[in-house]
Amino acid sequence: MKLARNLLATLAFGSVLAVSLQAQAGEAEIRKNLAARIPQFARIDEVTKSPMPGLFEVRINGFEIFYTDADGNYLLQGNLIDVKERRNLTEERVEKLSEVAFNKLPMNDAFKIVRGNGKRKLAVFEDPNCGYCKHFERDMKNVDNVTVYLFLYPVLGPDSNVKARNIWCAKDKAKSWNDWMASEVKPETAAASCDAAALERNIAFGRKYNITGTPTLIFADGSRTPGAIPAAQVEKQLAAAN
């Protein structure tokens, strides 16, 4: 019996080792072949097995997901859907990769808007010329007891940068922001000596963490939601995150 158990254990270990070596060989072959055939794959962040047998996930540039076979001969770009569970596995993966720990946000490069007791927390990246952001700001007036950390994110053009700089340099940043977004009262021109380097840091941060549009909301649990979602959805996500 002891000999049989040892034999089974050896076979099991050998099976696991074989699978591990096969996966490593697949990753090495994928990296080698894709890099040789497609220049943008010269630097691959990660190669992992996908939930679909025979299909490997290839990640580049932080958040770009592709799929390939074990030899790197074929390449797919698109969403991998689990039809049984009705889940978009690619979307879930990108969302997970894009999560930002709330306590890691550079809060010194944001200003606060406090409503009610301010107990709940929310960070928002917005462009002052973003129409969706203005709609979002109007709807946010219905959300109480929250502290919003507003990150100016001027990505829509030179005028966005001018307005963002003037708002950032205002004596009362929150008032200047609200006056512009709600009533289109242009912020006063900032003094030439104002330090607005925070805006450049915000853009660099957004590029690093794949913030590609405004508004983008980041909740206290690190979850992220792009777009001008309605107040009811903000409330729901605040309740889950805080």
UniProtKB/TrEMBL annotation:
The keyword Signal applies. Keywords: Disulfide bond, Periplasm, Redox-active center, Signal. It comes from the Bacteria. Residues 22-91 form the Disulphide bond isomerase DsbC/G N-terminal domain. Residues 1-25 form the signal peptide. Pfam families: DsbC_N, Thioredoxin_2. It is found in: Periplasm. Residues 115-238 form the Thioredoxin-like fold domain. InterPro entries: DiS-bond_Isoase_DsbC/G, DiS-bond_isomerase_DsbC/G_N, DiS-bond_isomerase_DsbC/G_N_sf, Thiol:disulfide_interchange, Thioredoxin-like_fold, Thioredoxin-like_sf. Its main location: periplasm. SUPFAM superfamilies: DsbC/DsbG N-terminal domain-like (SSF54423), Thioredoxin-like (SSF52833). CDD domains: DsbA_DsbC_DsbG. The keyword Disulfide bond applies. Required for disulfide bond formation in some periplasmic proteins. Acts by transferring its disulfide bond to other proteins and is reduced in the process. This is Thiol:disulfide interchange protein. The lineage of its organism: Bacteria, Pseudomonadati, Pseudomonadota, Betaproteobacteria, Burkholderiales.
